[in-house]
């Protein structure tokens, strides 16, 4: 074998061994890089359990005929809270599978739900991004969920809106709502909004948790796909 060929062969072997060593090294735990995706108000927004319903008297009028409507709304709210709780438990179960392959995701994971570089909305060209952040306790249970949505003008960069929803589990109904623009910052708690708004918010959270569950499945499938093809280059003679 000529010296040049021996050198190339040795280099390929070195790179393959280095790759194996790198894969076995323990990677640092993921942490949120954006402070807006952190959860810092547990005591303020963790007010109820996953099966409890909070409805301030201000949510309703004084019309006696509202009784039937109120009972139906309460039923729907309890159903949506239950759906969100079920979706969270499914995510926790999938997370236990995921961290066997990606241990760095033990305490925190970000899932990009939408990343649109450009679309027309109300006559303005904007880009948008939606990210779901999952915070886990040391026990592996969900601690907090952050749904972060950003819309920014492409040609008018100063025009932007960021909407953040934080769910401090197990209190599902008391979502923290935060809205930011270039000149505004608003904070609210979901249980202080109308029952109709609460229903819409809970359904949105449920839908995005289901999307996150699918993304976690795809991440697991991608790991096994890479593993199965890891040594394929060695048989390409």
UniProtKB/TrEMBL annotation:
Keywords assigned by UniProt, alphabetized: Signal
Signal peptide start and end residues: 1-22
Top-level taxon in the UniProt lineage: Bacteria
Full protein name: Uncharacterized protein
């Amino acid at each position: 074998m000529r010296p040049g060929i021996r050198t190339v062969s040795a280099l390929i072997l070195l790179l393959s061994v280095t790759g194996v060593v790198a894969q076995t090294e323990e990677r640092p735990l993921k942490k949120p890089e954006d402070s807006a995706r952190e959860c810092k108000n547990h005591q303020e927004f963790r007010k109820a359990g996953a099966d409890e319903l909070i409805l301030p008297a201000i949510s309703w009028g004084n019309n006696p005929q509202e009784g039937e409507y109120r009972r139906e709304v309460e039923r729907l709210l309890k159903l949506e809270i239950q759906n969100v709780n079920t979706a969270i438990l499914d995510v926790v179960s999938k997370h236990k599978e995921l961290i066997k392959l990606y241990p760095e995701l033990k305490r925190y994971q970000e899932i990009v739900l939408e990343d649109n570089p450009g679309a027309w909305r109300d006559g303005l060209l904007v880009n948008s991004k939606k990210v779901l952040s999952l915070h886990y306790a040391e026990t592996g249970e969900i601690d907090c969920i952050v749904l972060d949505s950003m819309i920014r003008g492409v040609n008018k960069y100063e025009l932007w809106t960021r909407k953040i929803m934080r769910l401090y589990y197990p209190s599902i109904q008391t979502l923290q709502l935060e809205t930011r623009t270039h000149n505004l910052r608003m904070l609210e708690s979901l249980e202080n909004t109308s029952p109709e708004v609460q229903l819409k918010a809970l359904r949105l959270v449920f839908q995005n948790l289901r999307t996150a569950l699918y993304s976690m499945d795809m991440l697991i499938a991608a790991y096994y796909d890479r593993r199965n093809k890891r040594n394929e280059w060695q048989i390409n003679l």
